[in-house]
């Protein structure tokens, strides 16, 4: 791959790039000749067998009980937060003193936070990328992490276990979500593609998420934007986050790289093929409890039992 092609690939990475868009083979959109149906023309992997998003049918999932997911640094206030319109979505990047990371659950490694971004639709009846029993939610949050052992996001894209994306669905409620107000109020300052803004109030990541994160679906899939790399362990949480209709509507006012309103940026669902979707019903604490002190206690009880016989 020559430097020009490599540059193009890096530029077009899922919701990451903030470089200029050229009217060439790296450009993608959600309508007409730039739409998802035509992505495979320039990005072959977009026609692969392990693509995302998918429809998750609850009656077909395999029920499992993984160890608890560990969230590192999620309660800490970032030092700085930057909101960027990258022409395809709006993303939030955080500067933190300690690295933000996740491990445990279905993950075999430690994954470091890269950025989070959103997908939404024309109106409140559509917008999420994955669907549950063919139900689409008005918006979806993607928190993107790369496997620490691959050192950075770009390198992680070359490995099957390179990324994990934590996905959260939104539902519309009558009330504004006051935590999200900080993000929503800054959207008018990033209407233009490739514009960015600093948040004035710093939000610990955990405030953006629902309380109950014990139930989730997980499967192997891809980035939902070109180059559609099949390197993602998806973790889709069952409990939704609530936003008001007015808050969701603000996202639709952003402009894409063609200067059009970014009314929708959700890829249609792709075939599941022979993949299995797992559903974590409850966390398995047995592995977490098996600490040194628990082992000593069990040994003491065993010895005491022997002594009474
Ligand atoms: Zn995404």
Automatic annotation (TrEMBL):
Alphabetized UniProt keyword annotations: Glycoprotein, Metal-binding, Signal, Zinc
InterPro entries in UniProt: CA_dom, CA_dom_sf, Carbonic_anhydrase_a-class
Gene3D superfamilies noted in UniProt: Alpha carbonic anhydrase (3.10.200.10)
CDD domains reported in the protein's UniProt record: alpha_CA
UniProt-listed SUPFAM superfamilies: Carbonic anhydrase (SSF51069)
Superkingdom of origin: Eukaryota
EC number: 4.2.1.1
GO-annotated molecular function: carbonate dehydratase activity; zinc ion binding
Endpoints of the signal sequence: 1-23
Keyword NAD: no
Domain Alpha-carbonic anhydrase positions: 26-281
Cellular component terms per the entry's GO annotation: cytoplasm
Family: Belongs to the alpha-carbonic anhydrase family.
Entry protein name: carbonic anhydrase
